[in-house]
Design a protein that fits this description.
Structural class: alpha/beta
Strand order of the largest sheet: 7-6-3-8-9-10
Largest sheet: 6 strands, parallel
Shape: elongated
Number of strands: 10
Strand content: 5-15%
Distance between the termini: 54 Å
Number of domains: 3
Length: about 525
Protein backbone atom coordinates (compact mmCIF):
# COMPACT_ATOMS: atom_id res chain seq x y z
CA UNK A 1 0.00 0.00 0.00
CA UNK A 2 2.95 2.31 0.62
CA UNK A 3 3.75 2.06 -3.09
CA UNK A 4 0.31 3.54 -3.84
CA UNK A 5 -0.29 6.05 -1.06
CA UNK A 6 2.82 8.20 -0.66
CA UNK A 7 3.91 11.77 -1.30
CA UNK A 8 4.72 11.01 -4.93
CA UNK A 9 1.04 10.57 -5.70
CA UNK A 10 0.47 14.24 -4.83
CA UNK A 11 3.34 15.26 -7.11
CA UNK A 12 1.75 13.21 -9.91
CA UNK A 13 -1.58 14.86 -9.14
CA UNK A 14 -0.13 18.30 -9.90
CA UNK A 15 1.39 17.15 -13.20
CA UNK A 16 -1.73 15.29 -14.38
CA UNK A 17 -4.13 18.09 -13.43
CA UNK A 18 -2.17 20.85 -15.22
CA UNK A 19 -3.66 20.35 -18.75
CA UNK A 20 -7.15 20.16 -17.25
CA UNK A 21 -6.54 23.32 -15.20
CA UNK A 22 -5.34 25.28 -18.24
CA UNK A 23 -8.33 24.24 -20.35
CA UNK A 24 -10.73 24.76 -17.44
CA UNK A 25 -9.64 28.38 -17.01
CA UNK A 26 -10.58 29.00 -20.63
CA UNK A 27 -13.89 27.21 -20.15
CA UNK A 28 -14.54 29.20 -16.99
CA UNK A 29 -14.14 32.50 -18.84
CA UNK A 30 -16.55 31.29 -21.52
CA UNK A 31 -19.11 30.21 -18.93
CA UNK A 32 -18.89 33.63 -17.26
CA UNK A 33 -19.72 35.16 -20.65
CA UNK A 34 -22.68 32.82 -21.15
CA UNK A 35 -20.99 30.58 -23.74
CA UNK A 36 -21.69 26.85 -23.35
CA UNK A 37 -18.29 25.78 -24.67
CA UNK A 38 -18.06 22.01 -24.97
CA UNK A 39 -15.54 22.35 -27.80
CA UNK A 40 -12.69 22.41 -25.26
CA UNK A 41 -11.84 18.78 -26.04
CA UNK A 42 -11.42 19.43 -29.76
CA UNK A 43 -9.35 22.54 -29.17
CA UNK A 44 -7.06 20.59 -26.82
CA UNK A 45 -6.61 17.87 -29.45
CA UNK A 46 -5.69 20.48 -32.07
CA UNK A 47 -3.18 21.93 -29.60
CA UNK A 48 -1.71 18.52 -28.86
CA UNK A 49 -1.23 17.72 -32.57
CA UNK A 50 0.14 21.04 -33.76
CA UNK A 51 2.35 21.31 -30.68
CA UNK A 52 4.17 18.18 -31.83
CA UNK A 53 4.15 19.44 -35.43
CA UNK A 54 5.78 22.69 -34.30
CA UNK A 55 8.44 20.80 -32.37
CA UNK A 56 9.02 18.48 -35.36
CA UNK A 57 9.64 21.27 -37.88
CA UNK A 58 11.63 23.51 -35.51
CA UNK A 59 14.19 20.85 -34.70
CA UNK A 60 12.89 20.15 -31.20
CA UNK A 61 12.08 23.69 -30.01
CA UNK A 62 9.23 23.22 -27.56
CA UNK A 63 8.38 26.94 -27.48
CA UNK A 64 7.72 26.83 -31.23
CA UNK A 65 5.37 23.93 -30.53
CA UNK A 66 3.54 25.89 -27.85
CA UNK A 67 3.10 28.94 -30.07
CA UNK A 68 1.88 26.95 -33.08
CA UNK A 69 -0.49 24.97 -30.87
CA UNK A 70 -2.03 28.12 -29.40
CA UNK A 71 -2.34 29.78 -32.83
CA UNK A 72 -4.04 26.76 -34.43
CA UNK A 73 -6.37 26.20 -31.47
CA UNK A 74 -7.35 29.87 -31.65
CA UNK A 75 -8.20 29.44 -35.35
CA UNK A 76 -10.47 26.52 -34.47
CA UNK A 77 -12.01 28.53 -31.62
CA UNK A 78 -12.59 31.39 -34.07
CA UNK A 79 -14.51 28.98 -36.32
CA UNK A 80 -16.54 27.88 -33.30
CA UNK A 81 -17.27 31.51 -32.41
CA UNK A 82 -18.22 32.53 -35.96
CA UNK A 83 -20.70 29.67 -36.28
CA UNK A 84 -22.05 29.75 -32.74
CA UNK A 85 -22.01 33.48 -31.96
CA UNK A 86 -22.12 35.33 -35.27
CA UNK A 87 -24.35 32.88 -37.16
CA UNK A 88 -26.35 32.03 -33.99
CA UNK A 89 -26.04 28.26 -34.43
CA UNK A 90 -26.76 25.97 -31.48
CA UNK A 91 -23.62 26.06 -29.30
CA UNK A 92 -23.93 22.41 -28.21
CA UNK A 93 -24.15 21.10 -31.76
CA UNK A 94 -21.39 23.47 -32.87
CA UNK A 95 -19.15 22.27 -30.03
CA UNK A 96 -19.75 18.62 -30.89
CA UNK A 97 -19.00 19.38 -34.55
CA UNK A 98 -15.70 21.05 -33.60
CA UNK A 99 -14.74 18.02 -31.51
CA UNK A 100 -15.46 15.63 -34.40
CA UNK A 101 -13.69 17.94 -36.87
CA UNK A 102 -10.59 18.03 -34.67
CA UNK A 103 -10.50 14.25 -34.35
CA UNK A 104 -10.88 13.71 -38.10
CA UNK A 105 -8.55 16.55 -39.13
CA UNK A 106 -5.64 15.44 -36.95
CA UNK A 107 -5.97 11.84 -38.16
CA UNK A 108 -6.15 12.97 -41.80
CA UNK A 109 -3.09 15.26 -41.59
CA UNK A 110 -1.16 12.57 -39.72
CA UNK A 111 -1.76 10.07 -42.53
CA UNK A 112 -1.74 12.40 -45.56
CA UNK A 113 1.25 14.63 -44.75
CA UNK A 114 3.38 12.58 -42.37
CA UNK A 115 2.56 9.12 -43.70
CA UNK A 116 2.12 7.98 -40.12
CA UNK A 117 -0.65 5.85 -38.68
CA UNK A 118 -1.64 6.36 -35.07
CA UNK A 119 1.18 8.50 -33.67
CA UNK A 120 3.90 11.05 -34.40
CA UNK A 121 7.10 11.34 -32.38
CA UNK A 122 9.68 14.07 -33.13
CA UNK A 123 13.34 13.07 -33.36
CA UNK A 124 14.09 15.38 -30.40
CA UNK A 125 12.23 17.63 -27.97
CA UNK A 126 14.24 20.29 -26.14
CA UNK A 127 12.03 20.65 -23.10
CA UNK A 128 12.22 23.56 -20.68
CA UNK A 129 14.34 22.58 -17.64
CA UNK A 130 12.39 21.76 -14.52
CA UNK A 131 12.36 24.54 -11.99
CA UNK A 132 14.12 23.86 -8.69
CA UNK A 133 12.99 26.31 -6.01
CA UNK A 134 15.97 27.05 -3.72
CA UNK A 135 13.88 28.01 -0.69
CA UNK A 136 12.07 24.68 -0.41
CA UNK A 137 14.37 22.21 -2.17
CA UNK A 138 15.75 20.94 1.17
CA UNK A 139 12.35 20.64 2.87
CA UNK A 140 11.39 16.96 2.40
CA UNK A 141 7.63 17.05 1.65
CA UNK A 142 7.45 20.48 0.01
CA UNK A 143 10.47 19.75 -2.19
CA UNK A 144 8.82 16.61 -3.58
CA UNK A 145 5.55 18.45 -4.16
CA UNK A 146 6.50 21.84 -5.53
CA UNK A 147 10.18 21.81 -6.48
CA UNK A 148 11.39 20.21 -9.70
CA UNK A 149 8.06 20.44 -11.53
CA UNK A 150 7.53 21.43 -15.16
CA UNK A 151 7.25 25.18 -15.78
CA UNK A 152 3.69 24.69 -16.98
CA UNK A 153 2.67 23.44 -13.53
CA UNK A 154 3.72 26.77 -12.02
CA UNK A 155 2.14 28.61 -14.97
CA UNK A 156 -1.17 26.91 -14.14
CA UNK A 157 -0.91 28.09 -10.52
CA UNK A 158 -0.30 31.66 -11.66
CA UNK A 159 -3.08 31.48 -14.24
CA UNK A 160 -5.65 30.67 -11.54
CA UNK A 161 -4.78 33.89 -9.67
CA UNK A 162 -4.65 35.91 -12.89
CA UNK A 163 -8.09 34.63 -13.88
CA UNK A 164 -9.50 35.57 -10.47
CA UNK A 165 -8.09 39.10 -10.79
CA UNK A 166 -9.41 39.49 -14.35
CA UNK A 167 -12.91 38.29 -13.45
CA UNK A 168 -13.37 40.14 -10.17
CA UNK A 169 -11.12 43.21 -10.38
CA UNK A 170 -11.10 44.47 -13.96
CA UNK A 171 -13.48 46.32 -16.27
CA UNK A 172 -13.20 43.46 -18.76
CA UNK A 173 -14.25 40.97 -16.08
CA UNK A 174 -17.26 43.12 -15.22
CA UNK A 175 -18.22 43.22 -18.91
CA UNK A 176 -17.89 39.43 -19.18
CA UNK A 177 -20.10 38.91 -16.12
CA UNK A 178 -22.67 41.39 -17.45
CA UNK A 179 -22.85 39.61 -20.80
CA UNK A 180 -23.17 36.23 -19.09
CA UNK A 181 -25.93 37.30 -16.72
CA UNK A 182 -28.02 39.28 -19.19
CA UNK A 183 -26.84 40.30 -22.68
CA UNK A 184 -29.64 42.85 -23.09
CA UNK A 185 -28.62 44.62 -19.90
CA UNK A 186 -25.01 44.69 -21.09
CA UNK A 187 -26.10 46.08 -24.44
CA UNK A 188 -27.98 48.96 -22.81
CA UNK A 189 -24.77 49.80 -20.95
CA UNK A 190 -22.81 50.13 -24.18
CA UNK A 191 -21.19 46.67 -24.07
CA UNK A 192 -21.17 44.51 -27.23
CA UNK A 193 -22.08 40.95 -26.09
CA UNK A 194 -20.98 39.23 -29.32
CA UNK A 195 -17.58 40.91 -29.17
CA UNK A 196 -17.03 39.97 -25.51
CA UNK A 197 -18.09 36.37 -26.16
CA UNK A 198 -15.77 36.10 -29.17
CA UNK A 199 -12.86 37.37 -27.08
CA UNK A 200 -13.53 34.79 -24.34
CA UNK A 201 -13.77 32.00 -26.94
CA UNK A 202 -10.43 33.04 -28.47
CA UNK A 203 -8.79 33.11 -25.02
CA UNK A 204 -10.20 29.67 -24.25
CA UNK A 205 -8.80 28.46 -27.58
CA UNK A 206 -5.33 29.73 -26.70
CA UNK A 207 -5.44 28.09 -23.26
CA UNK A 208 -6.76 24.80 -24.67
CA UNK A 209 -4.01 24.84 -27.29
CA UNK A 210 -1.44 25.36 -24.55
CA UNK A 211 -3.00 22.56 -22.50
CA UNK A 212 -2.92 20.14 -25.44
CA UNK A 213 0.67 21.05 -26.32
CA UNK A 214 1.76 20.52 -22.72
CA UNK A 215 0.14 17.09 -22.78
CA UNK A 216 1.79 15.97 -26.02
CA UNK A 217 5.15 17.78 -25.81
CA UNK A 218 5.92 17.68 -22.08
CA UNK A 219 4.04 14.79 -20.53
CA UNK A 220 3.92 12.16 -23.33
CA UNK A 221 6.56 13.47 -25.82
CA UNK A 222 4.50 12.33 -28.80
CA UNK A 223 1.12 12.72 -30.43
CA UNK A 224 -1.28 9.80 -30.73
CA UNK A 225 -4.77 9.84 -32.21
CA UNK A 226 -7.44 11.01 -29.73
CA UNK A 227 -4.76 11.31 -27.03
CA UNK A 228 -6.75 13.96 -25.14
CA UNK A 229 -9.21 11.19 -24.15
CA UNK A 230 -11.97 13.44 -22.89
CA UNK A 231 -9.84 15.80 -20.81
CA UNK A 232 -11.64 18.73 -22.44
CA UNK A 233 -14.97 17.36 -21.25
CA UNK A 234 -13.40 16.89 -17.82
CA UNK A 235 -12.32 20.54 -17.89
CA UNK A 236 -15.88 21.54 -18.71
CA UNK A 237 -17.09 19.39 -15.80
CA UNK A 238 -14.72 20.88 -13.25
CA UNK A 239 -15.86 24.38 -14.25
CA UNK A 240 -19.44 23.35 -13.46
CA UNK A 241 -18.33 21.70 -10.21
CA UNK A 242 -16.35 24.79 -9.23
CA UNK A 243 -19.34 27.04 -9.97
CA UNK A 244 -17.17 29.12 -12.35
CA UNK A 245 -14.93 30.17 -9.45
CA UNK A 246 -11.21 29.98 -10.39
CA UNK A 247 -10.05 28.60 -7.04
CA UNK A 248 -12.84 26.02 -6.70
CA UNK A 249 -12.33 25.02 -10.33
CA UNK A 250 -8.62 24.53 -9.63
CA UNK A 251 -9.41 22.32 -6.63
CA UNK A 252 -11.79 20.28 -8.79
CA UNK A 253 -8.97 19.85 -11.33
CA UNK A 254 -6.73 18.56 -8.55
CA UNK A 255 -9.48 16.11 -7.61
CA UNK A 256 -9.41 14.77 -11.16
CA UNK A 257 -5.61 14.66 -11.02
CA UNK A 258 -5.44 12.63 -7.84
CA UNK A 259 -8.03 10.09 -9.03
CA UNK A 260 -6.08 9.65 -12.29
CA UNK A 261 -2.80 9.27 -10.40
CA UNK A 262 -4.39 6.82 -7.98
CA UNK A 263 -5.79 4.74 -10.84
CA UNK A 264 -2.40 4.58 -12.56
CA UNK A 265 -0.62 3.48 -9.37
CA UNK A 266 -3.19 0.79 -8.62
CA UNK A 267 -2.76 -0.51 -12.16
CA UNK A 268 1.04 -0.59 -11.81
CA UNK A 269 0.84 -2.28 -8.40
CA UNK A 270 -1.20 -5.14 -9.97
CA UNK A 271 -3.36 -5.74 -6.90
CA UNK A 272 -6.10 -7.53 -8.83
CA UNK A 273 -8.39 -4.67 -9.83
CA UNK A 274 -9.09 -4.72 -13.61
CA UNK A 275 -7.41 -1.87 -15.49
CA UNK A 276 -10.66 -1.07 -17.32
CA UNK A 277 -12.29 -0.37 -13.96
CA UNK A 278 -9.33 1.71 -12.82
CA UNK A 279 -9.55 3.87 -15.95
CA UNK A 280 -13.09 4.86 -14.99
CA UNK A 281 -11.98 6.44 -11.68
CA UNK A 282 -11.59 10.04 -12.97
CA UNK A 283 -14.85 9.89 -14.92
CA UNK A 284 -16.81 8.43 -12.00
CA UNK A 285 -15.47 11.32 -9.96
CA UNK A 286 -16.69 13.75 -12.65
CA UNK A 287 -20.18 12.23 -12.54
CA UNK A 288 -20.21 12.49 -8.74
CA UNK A 289 -19.06 16.12 -9.02
CA UNK A 290 -21.87 16.96 -11.46
CA UNK A 291 -24.49 15.31 -9.23
CA UNK A 292 -23.21 17.30 -6.26
CA UNK A 293 -23.12 20.54 -8.26
CA UNK A 294 -26.69 19.97 -9.52
CA UNK A 295 -27.98 19.33 -6.00
CA UNK A 296 -26.37 22.53 -4.72
CA UNK A 297 -27.86 24.54 -7.61
CA UNK A 298 -31.30 23.07 -6.95
CA UNK A 299 -31.07 23.98 -3.26
CA UNK A 300 -30.07 27.55 -4.15
CA UNK A 301 -32.98 27.83 -6.58
CA UNK A 302 -35.37 26.81 -3.82
CA UNK A 303 -33.89 29.43 -1.52
CA UNK A 304 -34.27 32.10 -4.21
CA UNK A 305 -37.88 31.06 -4.81
CA UNK A 306 -38.58 31.32 -1.07
CA UNK A 307 -37.12 34.83 -1.14
CA UNK A 308 -38.92 35.95 -4.31
CA UNK A 309 -40.38 39.09 -2.71
CA UNK A 310 -37.10 40.36 -1.30
CA UNK A 311 -35.64 43.52 -2.81
CA UNK A 312 -33.08 42.41 -5.37
CA UNK A 313 -32.82 45.48 -7.60
CA UNK A 314 -32.93 49.27 -7.35
CA UNK A 315 -34.25 51.32 -10.28
CA UNK A 316 -33.18 54.99 -10.37
CA UNK A 317 -34.83 57.89 -12.16
CA UNK A 318 -32.32 60.23 -13.80
CA UNK A 319 -33.12 63.86 -13.00
CA UNK A 320 -33.83 64.59 -9.35
CA UNK A 321 -32.44 61.24 -8.23
CA UNK A 322 -29.05 60.66 -9.85
CA UNK A 323 -28.50 64.33 -10.63
CA UNK A 324 -30.14 67.76 -10.75
CA UNK A 325 -30.36 68.45 -14.47
CA UNK A 326 -33.86 69.87 -14.97
CA UNK A 327 -32.92 73.53 -14.74
CA UNK A 328 -30.02 73.18 -17.19
CA UNK A 329 -32.07 71.07 -19.59
CA UNK A 330 -35.01 73.49 -19.53
CA UNK A 331 -32.61 76.32 -20.38
CA UNK A 332 -31.35 74.23 -23.34
CA UNK A 333 -34.94 73.58 -24.50
CA UNK A 334 -35.86 77.25 -24.24
CA UNK A 335 -32.81 78.20 -26.32
CA UNK A 336 -33.65 75.51 -28.90
CA UNK A 337 -37.32 76.56 -29.12
CA UNK A 338 -36.33 80.20 -29.64
CA UNK A 339 -34.84 79.10 -32.96
CA UNK A 340 -38.35 77.94 -33.93
CA UNK A 341 -40.01 81.15 -32.77
CA UNK A 342 -41.20 79.87 -29.37
CA UNK A 343 -40.40 82.07 -26.37
CA UNK A 344 -41.43 79.85 -23.43
CA UNK A 345 -41.12 80.59 -19.72
CA UNK A 346 -39.39 78.17 -17.35
CA UNK A 347 -42.59 77.58 -15.34
CA UNK A 348 -44.38 76.24 -18.41
CA UNK A 349 -42.25 73.08 -18.26
CA UNK A 350 -42.86 72.41 -14.59
CA UNK A 351 -46.22 70.64 -15.06
CA UNK A 352 -44.66 68.18 -17.54
CA UNK A 353 -41.85 67.09 -15.19
CA UNK A 354 -41.32 63.33 -15.40
CA UNK A 355 -42.86 62.97 -18.86
CA UNK A 356 -40.93 61.92 -21.96
CA UNK A 357 -38.78 64.57 -23.63
CA UNK A 358 -40.99 64.50 -26.73
CA UNK A 359 -44.01 65.35 -24.59
CA UNK A 360 -41.96 67.68 -22.41
CA UNK A 361 -40.92 69.79 -25.40
CA UNK A 362 -43.88 69.17 -27.71
CA UNK A 363 -46.59 70.26 -25.29
CA UNK A 364 -44.95 73.64 -24.69
CA UNK A 365 -44.23 74.21 -28.41
CA UNK A 366 -47.83 73.45 -29.41
CA UNK A 367 -49.13 75.67 -26.62
CA UNK A 368 -47.40 78.51 -28.50
CA UNK A 369 -48.98 77.41 -31.79
CA UNK A 370 -45.88 75.70 -33.24
CA UNK A 371 -46.05 72.05 -34.35
CA UNK A 372 -43.59 69.76 -32.62
CA UNK A 373 -40.64 68.45 -34.65
CA UNK A 374 -38.13 65.83 -33.48
CA UNK A 375 -35.39 68.23 -34.61
CA UNK A 376 -36.37 70.47 -31.68
CA UNK A 377 -35.40 67.72 -29.24
CA UNK A 378 -32.15 66.95 -31.05
CA UNK A 379 -31.22 70.64 -31.01
CA UNK A 380 -32.02 70.83 -27.28
CA UNK A 381 -29.77 67.79 -26.68
CA UNK A 382 -26.92 69.42 -28.61
CA UNK A 383 -27.18 72.60 -26.53
CA UNK A 384 -27.54 70.56 -23.32
CA UNK A 385 -24.40 68.56 -24.14
CA UNK A 386 -22.41 71.80 -24.42
CA UNK A 387 -23.76 73.28 -21.18
CA UNK A 388 -24.20 70.20 -18.92
CA UNK A 389 -20.68 69.94 -17.54
CA UNK A 390 -20.33 72.30 -14.62
CA UNK A 391 -24.05 73.14 -14.53
CA UNK A 392 -25.68 69.77 -13.83
CA UNK A 393 -25.44 69.17 -10.09
CA UNK A 394 -24.71 65.81 -8.48
CA UNK A 395 -25.81 64.44 -5.11
CA UNK A 396 -22.80 64.06 -2.84
CA UNK A 397 -21.98 60.40 -2.17
CA UNK A 398 -24.26 58.99 -4.87
CA UNK A 399 -21.52 56.91 -6.51
CA UNK A 400 -20.60 55.46 -3.11
CA UNK A 401 -24.24 54.54 -2.38
CA UNK A 402 -24.62 52.77 -5.74
CA UNK A 403 -21.33 50.94 -5.15
CA UNK A 404 -22.49 49.78 -1.71
CA UNK A 405 -25.78 48.51 -3.15
CA UNK A 406 -23.89 46.47 -5.73
CA UNK A 407 -21.51 45.13 -3.07
CA UNK A 408 -24.56 43.86 -1.18
CA UNK A 409 -25.62 41.90 -4.25
CA UNK A 410 -28.36 44.25 -5.46
CA UNK A 411 -28.73 44.98 -9.17
CA UNK A 412 -29.01 48.60 -10.29
CA UNK A 413 -30.69 50.23 -13.27
CA UNK A 414 -31.64 53.62 -14.68
CA UNK A 415 -35.22 54.10 -15.95
CA UNK A 416 -35.46 57.54 -17.54
CA UNK A 417 -38.11 59.30 -19.62
CA UNK A 418 -35.26 60.92 -21.53
CA UNK A 419 -33.67 59.43 -24.63
CA UNK A 420 -30.46 57.42 -24.28
CA UNK A 421 -28.39 60.33 -25.57
CA UNK A 422 -29.52 62.66 -22.79
CA UNK A 423 -29.00 59.97 -20.12
CA UNK A 424 -25.38 59.50 -21.26
CA UNK A 425 -24.79 63.26 -21.24
CA UNK A 426 -26.18 63.62 -17.70
CA UNK A 427 -24.23 60.67 -16.29
CA UNK A 428 -21.00 61.95 -17.81
CA UNK A 429 -21.65 65.46 -16.47
CA UNK A 430 -21.84 64.23 -12.85
CA UNK A 431 -19.08 61.63 -13.18
CA UNK A 432 -21.23 58.50 -12.82
CA UNK A 433 -19.89 55.72 -15.04
CA UNK A 434 -22.41 53.68 -17.01
CA UNK A 435 -20.71 50.53 -15.71
CA UNK A 436 -22.25 51.27 -12.29
CA UNK A 437 -25.59 50.09 -13.68
CA UNK A 438 -26.66 46.65 -14.84
CA UNK A 439 -29.17 48.25 -17.21
CA UNK A 440 -29.99 51.68 -18.61
CA UNK A 441 -33.55 51.94 -19.93
CA UNK A 442 -34.52 55.12 -21.79
CA UNK A 443 -37.67 56.41 -23.47
CA UNK A 444 -36.49 55.46 -26.95
CA UNK A 445 -36.46 51.78 -25.92
CA UNK A 446 -40.16 51.50 -24.98
CA UNK A 447 -43.44 52.34 -26.64
CA UNK A 448 -44.67 54.60 -23.83
CA UNK A 449 -42.74 56.53 -21.18
CA UNK A 450 -43.96 57.68 -17.76
CA UNK A 451 -46.65 57.62 -16.41
CA UNK A 452 -47.01 54.30 -18.27
CA UNK A 453 -45.26 51.34 -16.56
CA UNK A 454 -43.32 50.28 -19.69
CA UNK A 455 -39.95 51.71 -18.56
CA UNK A 456 -40.09 49.88 -15.25
CA UNK A 457 -41.34 46.60 -16.71
CA UNK A 458 -38.51 46.71 -19.25
CA UNK A 459 -35.98 47.41 -16.48
CA UNK A 460 -37.14 44.39 -14.45
CA UNK A 461 -37.08 42.23 -17.57
CA UNK A 462 -33.52 43.24 -18.48
CA UNK A 463 -32.36 42.78 -14.87
CA UNK A 464 -33.94 39.31 -14.93
CA UNK A 465 -35.98 39.89 -11.76
CA UNK A 466 -39.70 40.28 -11.09
CA UNK A 467 -41.01 43.85 -10.60
CA UNK A 468 -42.08 42.85 -7.07
CA UNK A 469 -38.37 42.42 -6.22
CA UNK A 470 -37.54 45.98 -7.35
CA UNK A 471 -37.71 49.33 -5.61
CA UNK A 472 -37.95 52.44 -7.78
CA UNK A 473 -36.59 55.86 -6.73
CA UNK A 474 -38.34 58.74 -8.49
CA UNK A 475 -38.86 62.42 -7.78
CA UNK A 476 -42.05 62.87 -9.84
CA UNK A 477 -45.64 61.69 -9.27
CA UNK A 478 -45.68 60.45 -12.89
CA UNK A 479 -42.68 58.21 -12.21
CA UNK A 480 -44.10 56.88 -8.93
CA UNK A 481 -47.37 56.11 -10.74
CA UNK A 482 -45.58 54.17 -13.49
CA UNK A 483 -43.45 52.17 -11.03
CA UNK A 484 -46.51 51.24 -8.95
CA UNK A 485 -48.38 50.20 -12.09
CA UNK A 486 -45.45 47.89 -12.91
CA UNK A 487 -45.71 46.33 -9.43
CA UNK A 488 -42.57 47.81 -7.88
CA UNK A 489 -42.05 49.21 -4.42
CA UNK A 490 -41.58 52.98 -4.64
CA UNK A 491 -39.60 55.67 -2.85
CA UNK A 492 -40.64 59.26 -3.52
CA UNK A 493 -37.50 61.43 -3.45
CA UNK A 494 -38.41 64.92 -2.23
CA UNK A 495 -35.69 66.76 -4.14
CA UNK A 496 -37.86 69.61 -5.40
CA UNK A 497 -41.35 68.55 -4.30
CA UNK A 498 -43.47 68.31 -1.17
CA UNK A 499 -45.06 65.17 0.27
CA UNK A 500 -48.51 66.50 -0.55
CA UNK A 501 -47.79 66.27 -4.28
CA UNK A 502 -47.36 62.48 -3.98
CA UNK A 503 -50.34 61.71 -1.73
CA UNK A 504 -52.55 60.52 -4.58
CA UNK A 505 -49.88 58.01 -5.71
CA UNK A 506 -49.19 56.70 -2.17
CA UNK A 507 -45.51 55.67 -2.52
CA UNK A 508 -44.06 53.01 -0.21
CA UNK A 509 -42.00 55.64 1.60
CA UNK A 510 -40.39 59.08 1.26
CA UNK A 511 -36.78 60.25 1.33
CA UNK A 512 -35.58 63.86 1.41
CA UNK A 513 -32.54 63.07 -0.78
CA UNK A 514 -31.69 59.91 -2.76
CA UNK A 515 -28.54 59.10 -0.78
CA UNK A 516 -30.64 58.55 2.36
CA UNK A 517 -32.64 55.76 0.67
CA UNK A 518 -29.82 53.25 1.19
CA UNK A 519 -30.67 52.58 4.83
CA UNK A 520 -34.36 51.94 4.06
CA UNK A 521 -33.50 49.60 1.17
CA UNK A 522 -31.09 47.52 3.25
CA UNK A 523 -33.54 47.38 6.17
CA UNK A 524 -36.38 46.14 3.97
CA UNK A 525 -34.57 43.86 1.51
CA UNK A 526 -35.14 40.77 3.70
Amino acid sequence: MNEIFNINILSSMLRISTPVTLAAMGGLLCQKAGVFNIALDGMMLIGAFFGIVGVHFSGGNIMAGYLLAMACAMLVSMLYGLVGIKLKANLVYTGLAINMLSLGLTSFILNAFFNMAGSLRPAAIHTIPKLVIPVIRDIPVLAQLFSGQDMMVYAAFILVFVMWIVISKTRFGLAVASVGEHPDAARTSGIHPDRIQMITILISGALCGLAGAHLSCDIVSEFSENMVQGRGFTAFTVVAFGNANPFLTFLASLLFGITSALGTRIDIAAIGIPSSLINTFPYLMCIAALVFSASVSKRRSRQLFAQKDQIRAVVFDMDGVLCKSEKTFIAAIRQALLEYGVDAEEEEFRAMSGASDDLFIGAVAEKHGVSYQSAMKERAYTIYEKTAEGNVESFQGMERVIGRLREKGLKTAVASSADRRKVSISLKAVGLGEELFDAIISADQVSEAKPAPDLFIKAAEVLNVTPECCVALDDSPLGIHGAKEAGMKTIAVLTDRQKEEFQEEKPTCYCPVPTECYRWIMKNRA
